[in-house]
Amino acid sequence: MRTRFDKPLRPLTELDAQGHLGVFELADENGQVLFIGYAGGKSLFGLKGEIQAASKRLSAATHFRYEINTAYWTRYQELLMLHKADHGELPAAVEFTGKLGRLSPG
Amino acid sequence: MDLQLSEEQQMIVGMVRRFVREEIVPLELNLDPDTDQLPPADRERLIVKTKAMGLYGLDIPPEYGGPEIDLVTRTLLAIEMAQHRAGLYSPCYGVFGGAGLAQLFEATDDQKERYLYPTLRGEKRGFFGLTEPSGGSDPARAIQTRAVADGDDWVINGGKIFISGADKADFGLVFARTASEKGRNGVTCFIVDTDTPGFHVRRIVHTLRSANYATELQFDDMRVPATNILGQVNRGFAIANDRLSRQRIPYAAGCIGVAVKAHELALEYVPQRETFGAPLSSRQAIQWMLVDNEIDIQTSTWLVLDAAHKAQRGDSFRKEAAMAKLVGSEAGGRVVDRCMQMFGGYGVTKDFPFERWYREMRIRRIGEGPSEVQRHIIARDILGASLR
């Protein structure tokens, strides 16, 4: 079972997300992930709305990828843990105030 | 069994009921509907309140600093604490504290110093690692994780699945086979620090559940000192088995709590909602759903209180706990399903808690021993040795 995003990053000009629940990543031109977010039950316009809002806040973000997922809350935490396992820290723009677990995905 | 609550029980239950309604439910209006965590400031504020109420660490025995509250009352409180959106798997978001892993009360003094007391102080967290990919209902035979003695250590290889909280834990109880030919007598319980080389949390196992997700673990030549054996070598299954029986009582109580809340929401809704010129509550189809809810809730409440009563008296309660778990989880599922039906389209939206309860309640018929295993336990009890 895969744990990492298996979709390529695409330019934000190609944003095709709709109102689904799910998780997403925003990255800069070099593919460095700047933000990991989710569209949850309180998102007015789902992934589309959340990706648009986050990309407005992050001027360096040029690329995106997303995953439609009704288990967005656990998948979101998994993506944060994977990023931390790979890079030693969360993306600077992520504000996660809860207790985050540790993964050693191998 | 006397089903009349004492004055003290009524007072404590009332206090917790108000706490859930006045402190937890309003907070949830602003939280993501799938969350299992409170913002840290709210969590700390509420822990101060539960401590002031004298109800923090409810399951901690009084000799270890916990409040002196009997098991029947704690069961009643578990029913109350589940009465909110996240209540099934994250009752009151943990602000009433917990006793951690009850097996540690049987640990050696050295193990208590290193694991039990830090857990009771809220400094460490533990996980319970029993189930493996080869099966969870029959752990005595299914455990394939192996531990081999090497000098003063044991070297563990294998894996676990559906383990809650391992990624956030400081240590865990890991059950491993130490004598392959001895069946249930060949299992040993090890206390494992999660920073031990060879301990890996490989992934989250995504399920229907929103809170307290499960993880998959892998052990590669994980070296554990013999001083970290809990109990005796080859006697770990009794530790696991005891936990499984005890856990069924609060497990059933959580299901009942959610059923009570779902039923309450439906009772408020159906007199207001009109169809074809009359309130839903005037329709016999709706009335019968409410009647069935009432019967399901009452039946399962009596069974779980009976199990708690017997456990508290020190009587055998294995059959009663199995009956409570079986009926509580199945009745809870039926109640939530009916309430969702009464709410119609709104019932399946994330605007209401039913969809989360519906998903999470389905797991309750499987977790902590599926309904079929509970029936097996009850059958073995009533048929006696002839079935063993």
Looking at this protein, list some descriptive labels.
heterodimer, A: 106 residues, alpha+beta, globular, B: 388 residues, Butyryl-Coa Dehydrogenase, subunit A, domain 1, Butyryl-CoA Dehydrogenase, subunit A, domain 2, Butyryl-CoA Dehydrogenase, subunit A, domain 3, four-stranded mixed sheet, four-stranded antiparallel sheet, 10 helices
Short description:
The complex is a heterodimer of chains A (106) and B (388). By secondary structure, chain A is α+β, with helices and mostly antiparallel strands. Chain A is 26% helix and 20% strand.
Overall description:
- The complex is a heterodimer of chains A (106) and B (388).
- Chain A has 106 residues and is of the alpha+beta class.
- Chain A has one domain (10-87).
- Chain A has helices at 46-57, 72-87, and strands at residues 10-11, 22-27, 33-39, 63-68.
- The mean pLDDT of chain A is 93.
- Chain B folds into 3 domains: 7-103, Orthogonal Bundle (Butyryl-Coa Dehydrogenase, subunit A, domain 1), CATH 1.10.540; 126-230, Butyryl-CoA Dehydrogenase, subunit A, domain 2, CATH 2.40.110; 238-387, Butyryl-CoA Dehydrogenase, subunit A, domain 3 (Up-down Bundle).
- Helix content of chain B is 45%, strand content 15%.
- Chain B has helices at residues 7-28, 40-52, 71-81, 109-120, 139-142, 236-269, 284-313, 318-343, 354-364, 371-383, and strands at 126-129, 146-150, 153-164, 171-177, 187-193, 199-205, 214-225, 229-230, 274-275, 278-279.
- Chain B has a 4-stranded mixed sheet with strand order 1-4-5-8. Chain B has a 4-stranded antiparallel sheet with strand order 2-3-7-6, with no helix packed on it. Chain B has a two-stranded antiparallel ribbon with strand order 9-10.
- In chain B, helix 6 runs parallel beside helix 8 and helix 6 packs antiparallel against helix 9 (354-364).
- The longest helix of chain B is centred in the middle third of the chain and has 34 residues, at 236-269.
- Chain B is globular, with a radius of gyration of 22 Å.
- Chain A binds chain B through residues 1, 3, 40-42, 71-75, 77-78, 81, 97-106, and chain B through 32-37, 39-40, 166-168, 194, 200-204, 206-207, 209-210, 213, 215, 218, 350.
